[in-house]
């Protein structure tokens, strides 16, 4: 897997959303926005079926593809709005992010991971960030970290086995650790 980066500010997360919508369409903006809010791996994100979404309880129950673990995720206002809008626009769809091209007529399948990766990489090139499908998870983690969420909670959200994995995942460097000795003089 290529090394991809997190988008590290809320403004840049919004910018990626706007650029995806402008250059690739609302589908990719919706994938990005849902991905940064749910912090799922791309295979799990694209596999979301409407039948597994409970908008009344604001929950999504799933089994992670990589770990096989059962999880229940909360659906915030942004994700609920995307789900409702996509459902209204595509009443017969099975998947939240379903393919609608003429080449797949009659075939029900979600958008492909490679297609999403190409769209993200293109927008990443515009803003100078190595953007990939995993950037959504990393961006969520980084945003939480930047806003003071404890690393243990971020590890739980990302379903990491230990906070040390999350620290490595977020790219917290020795230089940043060293900076705390200057920033937090008591």
**What is CATH's topology name?**
hpI Integrase, Chain A
Structural class: mainly alpha
- H/E order of the elements? HHHEEEHHHHHH
What percent of residues adopt helix (DSSP H or I)? 40-55%
Number of strands: 3
CATH class assignment: Mainly Alpha
Q: How far apart lie the N and C ends? A: 42 Å
> How many discrete domains?
1
Tell me the fraction of residues in β-strands, as a range: 5-15%
Radius of gyration: 17 Å
Q: In what order do the strands lie side by side in the largest sheet?
A: 1-2-3
Overall geometry = globular
Mean pLDDT: 92
The unreliable regions are none
CATH architecture label: Orthogonal Bundle
CATH superfamily: Intergrase catalytic core
Largest sheet geometry: 3 strands, antiparallel
What's the gist of this structure?
With 186 residues, this protein is mainly α. 52% of the residues lie in helices and 6% in strands. It has helices spanning 10-23, 26-38, 42-46, 77-89, 113-127, 135-146, 151-157, 163-170, 174-183, and strands at residues 53-54, 59-63, 70-74.
Description:
The chain is mainly alpha-helical and 186 residues long. It has 9 helices and 3 strands, in the order αααβββαααααα. It starts with 9 loop residues before the first helix and ends with a helix. It has a single domain, classed as hpI Integrase, Chain A (Orthogonal Bundle). The longest helix has 15 residues, at 113-127. 52% of the residues lie in helices and 6% in strands. The mean pLDDT is 92. Strands 1-2-3 form a 3-stranded antiparallel sheet, with no helix packed on it. Helix 1 crosses helix 5 and helix 2 (26-38) packs across helix 6 (135-146).
